[in-house]
Design a protein that fits this description.
The protein has 313 residues and is of the alpha/beta class. It has 11 helices and 11 strands. It has an 11-stranded mixed beta sheet with strand order 3-2-1-4-11-10-5-6-9-7-8, sandwiched between helices. The termini are far apart.
Length: 313
């Protein structure tokens, strides 16, 4: 199946009129992470600040013919210090986004969530995949498949609100959230169905805002109008969801990887709920996916600036 990337191309195009976002790149000490930062800078998406051992970064750049002459390098001794300094750059106001390099995700996120020196907000941190599925008409947000292992219902409120805010930053005309389970009926023996129903009622009471919610929904009737019609589900979300909320990390991880490897989808990754968007990429990501992840972060950073300006006014 030919990959078209049309949805990702629209995301990148939406950033072209914006100034590059200053981005702290934590420990870009291999080709894929350094090339991702360089490619994003070439497109005008980000202005990278490379945080890591200078000698290693320069050696990687030389080996792979990557021009980093224009970028600031903050020299560190090791990956732990790279994570610390990258987070500090955000706290100092020098960076509006954070990008993972070749260090472990846990190492970076450990610095992000530290109470005194990290980037915590009142919102729980969560991960979203922004997925370009060739066979689906809309961009799909899948959450949480990488951070919260077994989220409580209280945590799911933040997971959902983070995803809704992301959808607005990405300029979705309407945000339709499906809260997934194995079935579309409330069953006391299946806790995720009860949580889904409660979360929808919370949206009715405006404890969750900015979207239309429905659940529980099984995956088929969340994304297939035909399936929703067969099941006689009368809902503005069923068959048309553009945000999928999974019961737990295992379900989300399997769903995202199934879409990637069986449906030829691309999955841009972003972490929300911190002071700034955090770009999480994998060594297996394509160039297009890496650039899309940066574009998502740029649009989230813009939305935060706009919200701050509005609050001051």
């Amino acid at each position: 199946m030919e990959r078209q990337h049309a949805k990702y191309d629209r995301l990148i195009d939406a950033c072209k009129a914006l100034a590059p976002t200053p981005t702290a790149v934590a420990h870009p000490c291999d080709e894929s992470s350094l090339r991702g930062a360089v490619d994003a800078a070439k497109l005008g998406l980000i202005t990278p600040i490379l945080v890591g051992p200078r000698a290693r970064i320069e050696a990687v750049a030389k080996q792979h013919a990557l021009n980093i002459a224009a970028f600031e390098i903050v020299d560190t001794a090791h990956s732990q210090e790279s994570a610390e300094r990258a987070v500090a750059l955000v706290r100092e106001g020098r960076a509006e986004a954070l990008m993972k390099g070749s260090l472990h995700t846990d190492e970076l996120m450990g610095e992000v969530v530290k109470r005194d020196t990290g980037l915590r907000t009142a919102r729980r941190v969560s991960h979203c995949f922004v997925m370009d599925v060739p066979s689906y008409a809309e961009t799909l947000i899948v959450t949480d498949a990488a951070v919260n292992i077994a989220p409580t219902m209280e945590t799911k409120v933040d997971i959902i609100q983070n995803a809704i805010d992301l959808a607005h930053a990405l300029q979705f005309p309407e945000v339709r959230v499906a809260i997934l389970s194995a079935m579309e009926t409330v069953n006391p023996k299946v806790p995720s169905t009860i949580e889904a129903a409660a979360l929808c009622k919370m949206a009715d009471r405006r404890q969750i805002t900015g979207a239309i919610l429905d659940g529980p929904l099984a995956l088929d009737n969340a994304i297939s109008l035909e399936s929703a019609e067969i099941k006689k589900i009368d809902s503005p979300v069923a068959g048309r969801a553009n945000v999928l909320i999974v019961p737990d990390l295992e379900a989300g991880n399997m769903l995202a990887k199934s879409l990637s490897f069986l449906a030829h989808a691309d999955a841009a990754g972003i972490v929300l709920g911190a002071r700034v968007p955090i770009i999480l990429t994998s060594r297996a990501d394509s160039v297009t996916t890496r650039l899309a992840s940066c574009a998502v972060a740029v649009l989230v950073a813009k939305a935060r600036r706009d919200a701050a300006t509005k609050a001051v006014a």
